[in-house]
Amino acid sequence: MISHVNRVTLAVGMVIATLVGQATAAPAGPSENATINLIRLLVQQGVLKQEQAEGLIAQAEKEAVQARQTAVAATGPAAAPGDVRVQYVPAAVRDQIRDQVKAEVMATAKQENWAQPNTFPDWVSRISFDGDIRLRDESRFFSGNNSNEIVDYAKLNENGPYDVNKDTNTRLPPLLNTREDRENLFRLRARLGMKAIISPEWTAGIRIGTGSDNNPVSTTQTLGGGFGKKDIWLDQGYLTWKATQDLTLTGGRIANPFYSTDMMYSSDLNFDGVAAIFNHSLNNEWGLFGTLGAFPVEYTSDTASSNGFDKEDSDTKWLFGGQIGANWKINRSNSLKGALAYYRFDDIEGQRSSPCSPWAGAPGCDTDGSRVAFMQKGNSVFLLRNINANPATPGLTPQPQYVGLASKFDVLDLNLVWDSELPQDFKLRSQANFIHNLAYDKGEMLKRSEGEIVNNINSKGQFESGGNALMVQFTLGSALEMKKAGDWNLLAGYKYIQPDALPDGFNDSSFHLGGTNAKGYFIGGNYGIDKNIYASARWLSASEVYGAPFEVDVMQLELNTRF
């Protein structure tokens, strides 16, 4: 926007251009010449300097004399009725006024970014937008040999407690669908992000996304539902401070700050908390990176139990993570990337309660809050409540229960990636991921649960589990990332995830329909249709490692675009 002074300058300039006729030497007092009075007024207002004003008056006087001499030598035709004669404006005056007005206006325009080609005001240039849309057709094919009695413990905790005493409760617990195929589920993922550069060191960002619910591992929305409107969620919201050239601090709801695969963390998972991210190049061949972070996974409700006088102790479940890694450019055709991470999940395991009597009116039991906020399936779980029997009817005492995780989780995560350029411009990525739960202890789990573990039981009634997971994957094609038309690649891999290698609530939700206690293979391919538009196809086949039979194949056909 043109400033007040510039507007005055422009207006006065226009008046001068139309009124200047002849100029005489300015007397000390007010002049009869309106133009000279206007020039003096500009000096008083600080628009013109005194020396500039004197120069204008002298030049105007000189050219006015010349104009009068010319008019005497050649008198023009007489004016007809209605004609308007415009006083002569000396060229020097016009040019000087024009140049000064133009210079001041353009200076303001440049400063405020409103007159330069392809530019916007400064605050607009510091904001950028990005997003992506994915259309997916998904089909799920179940084996006819699957057990149809696999309990959905996530829904049991969400809708519970559930009475496990069959003598007092005849209804079934929530069960997973394990036998009925689901074909052509039309699904959508849409995300839109905004990033604002507050200063050279500070950045703020917000991203919204779709999602059928608030689960942390997917922003995919299943379409249908009578054409009803779909939900929008806050997917990210963060502040970032670039402390040094190599160190960045970020906090809020942030993207995964660790280098990992979807066997550990879903690609859609975001973290709530703070992280310090380090990235340093040693030379043209070597680089180091690392991350430290603290993330509150869940807070104990201030009102639990809601209908009791005594509230539960504050017991925040935390994730503390640290990672160190290196990049090695071996030669022009080969590079290696490796990272080792340690994740400590504090207080995520369940706790067996002290004796309690919900049947006698107790609002709850003292460890109800130790159940996790979100889970998929696979982790070993046990009944949390130690319920006293009713002395009057011991066998008919209701047993309303929640479940909690039987294992602690201190997870070691090792990732290796080798990128190679092959003849014919082919590119090959070989990737391996090994996970080990340092806190896995079968004996400790049985002790913690007091023998009340309810899943991962074999046909002999014995509890089986493990604390290891392994993934290998190979990607071959003209490009590893789909950026332009004609880019393509093929991929294949294998996963083996024991039940308690990692928390089942945070990893990929497609392989074995999410969680742990899964093994199997996956294949797929990607093809670039246009710039930033590509098609994908995946087939994932997985079954259980331990426990009741559960085998499922998942086919996904996708159209992806980013902008």
From TrEMBL:
Highest taxon in the source lineage: Bacteria
Keywords in alphabetical order: Signal
Record's keyword annotation contains Signal: yes
* Signal sequence, start to end: 1-25
Question: InterPro entries under this entry?
Answer: OMP/PagP_B-barrel, Porin_5
Q: What is this protein called?
A: Porin
The protein's organism comes out as: Pseudomonas shahriarae
Its taxonomic placement starts with: Bacteria, Pseudomonadati, Pseudomonadota, Gammaproteobacteria, Pseudomonadales
